[in-house]
Write a structure and sequence with these properties.
This protein is of the alpha/beta class and 176 residues long. It is built from seven helices and seven strands; from the N terminus they run E-H-E-H-H-E-H-E-H-E-H-E-E-H. The model has no long low-confidence stretch (mean pLDDT 97). The protein starts with a strand and ends with a helix. Strands 2-1-3-4-5 form a five-stranded parallel β-sheet, with helices on both faces. It has a two-stranded antiparallel ribbon with strand order 6-7. The protein has one domain: Rossmann fold (3-Layer(aba) Sandwich). The chain binds flavin mononucleotide (FMN). Flavin mononucleotide (FMN) binds next to helix 1. Pfam families: FMN_red. GO terms for molecular function: FMN binding; oxidoreductase activity. This is NAD(P)H-dependent FMN reductase.
Amino acid sequence: MKKIAGISTSSSSNSINRKLLINALNQIDQNNTTLIDLNPNIPIYSIDIEERDGIPEEIQSLFTELQSYDAYLIAIPEHNGSITALFKNTLDWLSRINQNIFGKKDILLLSTSPGPNGGKYATAHVKNFIPFLGGNVVSDFNLGSFYDNFQNDFITDKLINTEYTEALKHFRTVSV
Ligand SMILES: Cc1cc2nc3c(=O)[nH]c(=O)nc-3n(C[C@H](O)[C@H](O)[C@H](O)COP(=O)(O)O)c2cc1C
């Protein structure tokens, strides 16, 4: 049975992307999925800090843990048309161990926002750079207007829910 990691890249304790990610993990497989929250207490990457203190232990153990999964879901909050500083910082540190962070494994990208675009600019950005970090995006889904469309852990709009289910199904068929 394949092991799947769901990576939440928000630093909000009430993250809407985390809520969507948990829903997706439960639909994909309740027994072989693990939720990973990125650590917001790692210093901002600096070559000076790296040379002085080395790579933080939390980053080293995250890198090792990531290698133990067969595929990933990544939930991407959009900040100013891009990814969160937390996600960027974590990737910068991880890439100092090895640029092949995701081991050429498959990834499903999920993003949602309160506005109508559902994080589509952040998703597009991730699709551009993640191949350089060993990530293979096989499917993606953006949920706009989260508070209108996601209620009681369910996507209320029938058409949007069909699109969501198709994205999960594609990932499950190809990658799990
Ligand atoms: C600094 C900042 C920048 C933001 N920029 C965008 C943006 O470019 N596009 C967007 O749709 N939402 C933007 N938002 C709103 C976020 O989508 C919203 O805060 C969302 O809840 C973030 O996801 P999370 O709850 O999973 O952390 C921004 C929010 C913050 C705090």
